[in-house]
Amino acid sequence: MKKDGSGLYFWLNGKMVKAKDANVPILTHSMQYGSGIFEGIRAYNTSRGAAIFRLDDHIKRFFRSAKIYAMDLGYTQKGIHDAVVKTVVYNKLDSCYIRPFAFYDDDSIGISTTGKRISVFVAARPFGAYYGKGKESGISCKISSWQRINSLILPPEAKASGNYINSIIANLDARMAGADEAILTSLDGYVAEGPGENIFIVEDGELVTPSREADILLGITRDSIIKIAESMGVRLSERNIHKEELYTCDEAFFAGTAAEITPITRIDSRKVGKGVPGPLTKMLGNEYSRIANGQRRDFDYWLTYV
Ligand SMILES: Cc1ncc(COP(=O)(O)O)c(C=O)c1O
Questions:
Q1: How distant is the alpha carbon of residue 161 from its chain centre?
Q2: Which residue's C-alpha comes closest to atom 15 of ligand 1?
Q3: Which atom belonging to ligand 1 lies closest to the Cα atom of 159?
Q4: pLDDT class for 5, splitting at 50, 70, 90?
Q5: In angstroms, how far is the first alpha carbon of the chain from the final one?
């Protein structure tokens, strides 16, 4: 594999094919209408070789997304598990980002998905910190004027491509206003999540994150942070967060597979706490990273060594 990722092989419908040969017709339904479902998974380079973080939880969510849209993937969860492992091993990858994706590759014009052919691929490539140096020093956010999709309109719990056009416009809006990232609120005005990550704040030593009712994607990193916090005796509450709490909290951070734990140090141009990553954020970020890198035996069951 070259530095730009060329030379990689992707798993496509059961076969390993060169990435450049993994093509679809230009009229592919999922490209036109955003009807794909997918996952984003990371593998880490541990002292015992590459390890995929919470692989089976990601696969479970992949199948839940498929069920919501009545997509018969034609594979078992074990089949996709094996495809992910094979893609990492085949490409001799260690630290990388893995993208299982299921889509309608039918190239007719109609919207209906009934009876349309489904393809599944697993791609993987080396991937660094999503927010670059921001992962250590923190990023700035803007509360978006665009609200998060909600269950009345689209299922937020399905990780479906079409959902991300909502994420894209919020991110675009934030970037155009000079911030690094957006924070979206739910239709009733409470804090929901980032375009591709869940959010946590810290207030008086308590960790707070929006609950399932806030129309969020139930993130696996979010769940990991909750479990790590519990294991360390950190007080935690899942509840509605008012927008203004984002201005008054002591710490804030994003949690997601791509973003990992990224401190948020400015929101709407106001400093979060002292304007630098806070102690609980750093502690949880370190523990998350230790676990993902195979350095905490009590959480080793989250890792699939390949
Ligand atoms: C909208 C959204 N929220 C939250 C997350 C975080 O989920 P996870 O931690 O499972 O990656 C993601 C990323 O997948 C996402 O796209």
A1: 12
A2: 196
A3: 16
A4: low
A5: 19
Domains and CATH numbers, the chain: 9-125 (3.30.470.10), 134-292 (3.20.10.10)
The answer to pTM > 0.90 is: yes
Distance from Cα 110 to the centre of ligand 1, integer Å: 30
> In this structure, which long-range contacts are made by residues 229-237, counting pairs with CB atoms below 8 Å and at least 24 apart in sequence?
229/284, 231/298, 232/283, 232/287, 234/205, 234/207, 234/280, 234/284, 235/205, 235/206, 235/207, 236/206, 236/207, 236/208, 236/209, 237/206, 237/207, 237/208, 237/209
User: pLDDT digits over 178-225, tens only?
Assistant: 999 999 999 999 999 999 999 999 999 999 999 999 999 999 999 999
Contacts of 260 (CB under 8 A, 6+ apart): 42, 129, 130, 135, 221, 285, 288, 289, 292
Residue to probe by mutation, ligand 1, list 38, 56, 217, most atoms within 8 Å of CB: 217
